Amino acid sequence: MRARPYLIRVEQEVLYDLQMRLERTRSPRVASGAQDGWEFGSSPAFMAELVRYWRTSYDWREQEAKLNALPQFKADIDGANLHFVHVKGRGPGPMPLLLLHGWPDSFYRFHKVIGPFSDPASAGRDANDSFDVVVPSLPGFPLTGPVARTTEHQPTRQSAQSVWRLMTEVLGYERFAVAGGDGGSALAQILAIDHPEAVVGIHLTDLGWHVGNADPSTLSRAEKHHLEASKKSFMADGAYAMVQVTRPRSLASGLNDSPAGLASWIVDRFHSWSDSHGNIENSFSKDELLTNIMLYWVTQTIGSSMFNYYADGRSPSLTTADHVDRPVALALFPKDAGGVPLRSFAERTLNVQRWTEMPRGSHFAALEEPELYGRDVTEFFHSLKSDSNVIGRSVDVHPAL
Fold first, then answer.
1. What is the CATH number of the domain that holds 106?
2. Cβ–Cβ < 8 Å for 82, 107
3. How far, in Å, CA of 112 to CA of 370, rounded?
4. Of 69, 230, 260, 390, which shows the fewest CB atoms inside 10 Å?
């Protein structure tokens, strides 16, 4: 397996086709008085403005050039044409850091923190805290795309194996740090369980679904109350997951055909999982929202990105019987889905060494609150850096650029 340089190049015909579809968008008919609200899903008023901006003002070529400023590569691993960003750290003995995204975002989740992580001195931080940053596009997601599955069960575990091979066999790191959220949280935990010799520690922004399956007879009164509150929150805002767990293909047909429909489905999650005080643009600009959506649109990967929901719903990759023994940090943002969990829940399955409850922010922390997120990741892994075995070697794939 060898890494080869990669640049994002979307054919102009794809952009022409998108423009025509946007011009022919049929907005939904809504009841009088409900035009501006998010109560029933994405706000029709905001979506109309977003589609108008997409059609008349958004510049994909500008965003494409910004993405291509990052050193990107692809490698054939376990049936995946795995896309990844690899930025060498500028500083003494940079620590290898693997960053793992979730759904419905992409490697773009981390674009604001790659620079400060790899070159902290340029951001006014200590150069001793530099990282070699690796950000893969997970199997099934934009720029990696659908994969040949060795099994229909536990694709998350297969994805974890692929990114472990990327770090150790392609890039040559013997030990590395891992940080992730959403699906990236589950991947980080699996990596620490399956390959503890390679994982220095993991930094998470959530616990994952499996904690909710704890044996009720083992729960304290506070834990039962918290779990019931979480279930009520999910029932009010979890329809997306139930559809993707049960009928992802039916949904994907519509989203893959309509850019406005795709945007509405993804934007609804970004609005619901943000600390935006009702105005999504307090957390994410239109360009940021659309660049993430464009990655799904031009690669036609919304269907494959949802497959993990279906598969994990039938054969979970993590259970409450699993335990992470490597050091774990949790940075918990108050407006994330379900709110801040109880520490006792986390300690059932994780070796919690750092617990940070953030003053603001939500699910897409690295994109919404990059300063808070980046500082917490850096401080945690700096505390582990005294282990001289942390610093790994790396095959230099950059001269081929």
1. 3.40.50.1820
2. no
3. 6
4. 69
pLDDT tier at 399, thresholds 50, 70, 90: very low
| Nearest alpha-carbon partner for 66 in 259, 281, 291 | 291
Q: Can you give the pLDDT at residue 218? A: 82
Q: How far apart are CA 392 and CA 88, in angstroms?
A: 12
401 found inside a domain: no
Q: What residues pair up with 351 in beta bridges, in sequence order?
A: 327
Cα dihedral angle (117, 120, 122, 125), rounded to 10 degrees? Answer: 140
DSSP calls for 344-376: HHHHHHEEEEEEEE-SS--SSHHHH-HHHHHHH
What is the C-alpha to C-alpha distance for residues 140 and 66, in angstroms, rounded to an integer?
23
**pLDDT tens, position by position, 148-167:** 765 555 788 899 999 999 99
The residue type at 295: L
Neighbours of 63 (CB within 10 A): 19
Pairing of strands 80-87, 131-137: antiparallel
**CA–CA separation, 109 and 126 (whole Å):** 24
- The structural domain count of the chain equals 1
Residue 248 counted as domain residue? yes
DSSP per-residue letters across 263-289: HHHHHHHHHHTS--TT-GGGT--HHHH
Contact 39, 261 (CB under 8 A): no
Contact yes or no for 89/133 (Cβ under 8 A): yes
Residue 165 lies in a domain: yes
Structure tokens at 231: 């279930």
**Residues 260-275: tens digit of each pLDDT:** 999 999 999 999 999 9
b/e 371-385 (16+ beta carbons within 10 angstroms → b): ebbbbbbbebbeebb
Q: Which of 225, 204, 199 is nearest to 332 (CA)?
A: 204
Give the Cα separation of 38 and 277 in Å (integer): 12
- Segments forming the whole domain that contains residue 368: 4-22+39-391
Angstrom distance (rounded) from CA 313 to CA 317: 9
Residues making up the chain, counted from first to last: 401
387, amino acid identity: D
In this prediction the pTM is 0.94
Token digits of residue 371: 């300063």
Q: In this predicted model, what pLDDT tens digit does every residue of 101-119 receive, in sequence order? A: 999 999 999 999 999 999 9
Reference 335, options 278, 255, 397, 265; nearest CA is: 278
Domain presence at residue 274: yes
| 36-41 contacts at long range (C-beta below 8 A, 24 or more positions apart) | 38/268, 38/271, 38/272, 38/278, 41/264, 41/268
